[in-house]
Amino acid sequence: MFLPYPVTAQEADATKESPAKATATAEPKYPLNVVADEAELYVVDLDLPGVWKIGEGGRSLFVRGSNLLRHPMNRPRCIVMHPTTGILVGDSATREVYHIAEQEAEPKPLCNARVGIAMALAVSPDQKTVYVGDAEKRSVLRFPIAGGDPELVVRVNARGLAFDADGKLWAVTPDDEAIYRIDVDEKKSEAIVSGRPFQYPNGLVWAGDHGFVTDGYGKTVWKFTADGKTEVWHAGDPLVGPVGISLGEKSLFVADPKQLQVYEFDLESKQVKPRM
Hints:
- The two termini are 21 Å apart.
- It is globular and about 45 Å long.
- The chain has 276 residues and is mainly beta.
- The longest helix is centred in the first third of the chain and has 7 residues, at 9-15.
- It is 5% helix and 47% strand.
- It has one domain: Neuraminidase (6 Propeller).
- The strands form six sheets. A four-stranded antiparallel beta sheet has the order 1-2-3-4. Strands 5-6-7-8 form a four-stranded antiparallel beta sheet, with no helix packed on it.
- Keywords: Lipoprotein.
- This is Lipoprotein.
- InterPro entries: 6-blade_b-propeller_TolB-like, SGL.
- Residues 109-192 form the SMP-30/Gluconolactonase/LRE-like region domain.
């Protein structure tokens, strides 16, 4: 595993362990967010801290963060696939977004510690720009995929972000105006859903001509359309406190940290199975 702080030779020897051994001695603690990449899932665990990888061979640790405050990956909260290799992870402890290129690779900081609390990530359709929902600044920021200082896009308090096929960025917020459609070129936002239909919205994905939102307090996955209509897509068991959400080819993946689980919902039948 990577060592983000100075250690003695004895300490280094004591912390050397293979990914297989680390996986064998670790268990999920607070699986907060998830991203799907073909047959594999990557799951952010806030309290481990680190990122799990789930595939045909089962669950393994992709990377483990530091247990020391203000050290890399101490409080990872959001995740998205990097367009070239590996993953991007937002970490509130270090005010950073990291690129982790491969298993057990050292996290590479990208935004010069200029993000406050990264709650959501999205990569632009041209794969050149990273968008961040910053809860501290109550804004959506962006920076180049290779790294750089973030710039303000709009003052929308995004907790979930996703692009549609037209290049518009959708954002869910905990505010009265719950869902926005953002024109990232013009840096303008339009409220689409208002009136707080969700009790505690956490994540958002876009799926063709509609989107899905997780509602932690409501124990619900909502469906919404571009004209602002909302409806309950799934409510109740097995969900207790859904947070992260990701879209697969035929499935919807929902991270529920209170259940220590990631659930896979079939988009057609809504049949559900645990994946952690």
